Amino acid sequence: MIGLLLLIIGIQPDTLTTSSHDLDEVVIVSRGQGGKRSAKGQVATIDEHLQELNHVELVRRGSYAWEPTVNNMQTERLSTTIDGMKIFYACTDKMDPVTSYVESGNLQSISLNSGLNGNPQATGNIGGALDLKLRKAGFLYDHRLHGLNGLNAQVGYETNGNVQVYGADGSHSSQSFYVNGGAFFRHADNYKAGDGKKVQFSQFQKVNAFLNSGFKFPPNRGDGRGALEATFIFDRATDVGYPALNMDVAKAEAFITSLAYKHLFEDSKLESWETKGYYNHITHVMDDTTRPDVEIHMDMPGESWTAGAYSLLTGEYGKHQTQLNIDGYYNRLFADMTMYPGGAAPMYMVTWPDVGTLNVGASLTDNIRLTDASSLHLSGKLSWQHQRLNNEEGYKALSVFFPGMQQAYHQTTGRIAANYQLSIVNSQLSIGAGWGSRAPTVTEAYGYYLNNTFDQYDYIGNPRLKNESAIEVNGSYQLSILNFQLSTDINAFFFSNYIIGQFEDRLSAMTVGAEGVKVYGNIDHATIANTSLTAEWRPVSGLRWSAKGTYSVGRDDEGEPLPLIAPFTYQSRLSYATGPLSLQAEVKGHTRQAKYGKKYGETETAAWTIVNLSANYQFSINHYQLALRAGVENLFDKNYATYADWCHIPQKGRNIYVNLSFEI
């Protein structure tokens, strides 16, 4: 209902209208106009929505909390924010990416800036920047209406894994006040692979609740108007299995809150000014109590605390549309591990030594309209960071390997990017370039004996790492002729001081069954390049065919393949829509991963192809708007794993789903 009201009466999703900036792509999560969406609609997981984005793949360690990659780069080289808020995962094994702490019901959209052209709050975004936009009811701007109420509900079921989804949310909007909130629940048992074999430890359960509210101040004559907005999100996942890892998760819990003031100017070159303060706390508890035949039982809790603020000023002067942003945050990361060897005293170890990170930065973006057919986009950011190891035991343990290491470090990072766009008859051309750097992550700099099941090595951080940097070049071209559209894009990243784990034969592994020890280090250079070709054809009204192929390559300084680089991937969709009914058939897969990172413990992945079918029917009963969706994933029950499936855990076999949503 909220999305329908936005369309009919012009409620602004983010409450006060602000200038838009160029985004590579947007996935609309809640009901609304335009954009890409998962065939499952709002019942789809955040991971399934992310799959619709160009440049994005997902590393899967189980059924829950897949890790997004952009341009074949993982979390270390990405920026992920929720409505501009910095949030940091609390698991040393990356079992809880930022995207796992929200639900489809929370969100309006997911925006992606590919490469170094990040959003204003992004830091260290060499690969790209994701921002998850929260869904807010917004104020009414039609003074003929005194107030509107809305209610949404969703229910869904999937046969493979007995997946159950229930969600409901409500809203109230007036000219000076709005509030919307809701709750979402998911439950999944162990799923079955294509051969019918159950994949143990793939279950999970999750509950999510949220509340947004806003109050608009009376307008000041000639000074515009302002509004105060507050957000609260509670997210809790329990009994989460990870078949690709040695441990599961007893609890992953997040408290996310923010307070913002937004002001729209009148009769001024300034358009808007938004200032937001936020706080979030993440608790993540790993254990192996449900695993059989555990040689040494372990507990591995981790916590993340982040407090921050940003202030974003937007203005327009002549041909320039400019954004100035100042932001800062303070984050603490702490993790430890207790081992319980049979017949011996427990063994305790600090794996993240309570690292406190203070980061402040300033960014400037300028969209310049050169002519009616061309534009230039410029962006840059400079950040300063100070880190301190607050846990004395963790500091002393790491000092054994790095004598004379300091207890505090600081780094300066930055990025700059330019993009030129030209529209010619029936075609669009874009070329761009940029440079950016990032500081080592807490794991890379200060992690202590973190086991990686991908290559079966224990990893140790290196506080003496240099900042990693990269030069990016990119280009795209789109041609439209009648009902046919063809587009291609390419980008390449040339790294200096690339950070990756390196063999250390002088040290012994601590984890039972580990092959050895690696210490993070800088290699002189590395390269990652990606290219894609997309075609779309609409021969008659309602009928649409699209196809896409993507190829990537990644090499280290010795010419060896980097790990987790996608082979040639392809996808083709045929859809038909008539009235309230839409149908879609999809074929997707990837070729054999011939160029894999053997040097880094990666093994070859076989080729695979699957077929998916889906249908969507929208109808109304009295004042109720209903949408019924059904489909079959992996129609022919293929047993397969993708290159990004950790330790080659198999994907789901045939899965039949159905879900119903209604709005009043």
Structural account:
With 664 residues, this protein is mainly β. The protein has a single domain (2-663), classed as TonB-dependent receptor, beta-barrel domain (Maltoporin, Chain A). The protein has 4 helices and 31 strands. The chain has a 22-stranded antiparallel β-barrel. The protein has a 5-stranded mixed beta sheet with strand order 1-6-7-4-5, with no helix packed on it. Mean pLDDT is 92; it is low at 1-22.
Which labels suit this protein?
664 residues, 31 strands, 4% helix, single chain, 5-stranded mixed sheet, mainly beta, Maltoporin, Chain A, 22-stranded antiparallel barrel
Helices and strands in order:
Layout: H1 2-9, E1 25-28, H2 46-50, E2 56-59, E3 67-70, E4 78-82, E5 85-86, E6 107-114, E7 128-134, E8 148-158, E9 163-173, E10 177-188, E11 204-216, E12 225-240, E13 248-264, E14 270-287, E15 297-317, E16 320-340, E17 347-371, E18 374-389, H3 392-399, E19 408-424, E20 427-438, H4 442-446, E21 450-452, E22 457-460, E23 468-481, E24 484-503, E25 516-537, E26 543-555, E27 569-578, E28 581-590, E29 608-621, E30 624-633, E31 655-663
Parallel strand pairs: 4-7, 22-25
Antiparallel strand pairs: 1-6, 2-3, 4-5, 6-7, 8-9, 8-31, 9-10, 10-11, 11-12, 12-13, 13-14, 14-15, 15-16, 16-17, 17-18, 18-19, 19-20, 20-23, 21-22, 23-24, 24-25, 25-26, 26-27, 27-28, 28-29, 29-30, 30-31
